[in-house]
Amino acid sequence: MGQLANALGKNIRAQRKAKGLSQDALALSCKIDRSYMGRIERGEVNLTVEKLYSIAGVLQCEPGALLPPISIGLD
Fold first, then answer.
1. 26 exposed, middle or buried (CB, 10 Å; 0-12, 13-18, 19+)?
2. Distance between CA atoms of 64 and 32, rounded to whole angstroms?
3. Which of 21, 65, 68, 70 is positioned for an S-S bond with 7, CB 3.0–4.6 A?
4. Cα gap 53→61, rounded to integer Å
5. What is the pLDDT of residues 22-47, one digit of tens each?
6. Average pLDDT over residues 51-62
7. What angle do CA 42, 27, 73 make, to 5 degrees?
8. d(C-alpha 4, C-alpha 69), whole Å
9. Helices assigned H by DSSP within 1-75
10. Model's pTM, two decimal places?
């Protein structure tokens, strides 16, 4: 995937760790397979808006807080 997916995945991972959640716990709460959550965090997949909102809801943050700066997506 591209820089945008990588940056989004890193932000999700950082927020998850800040909340003290395991990848497995986050995936379970979001009703996403754990291996898919790993792929999200590694930037290997593009998220749907629905999944982004689901992850943000579990992490108790705004979806926009997980998005990287716009300059990353302009390459």
1. buried
2. 20
3. 68
4. 9
5. 999 999 999 999 999 999 999 999 99
6. 97
7. 35
8. 9
9. 3-18, 23-30, 34-41, 49-59, 63-66
10. 0.90
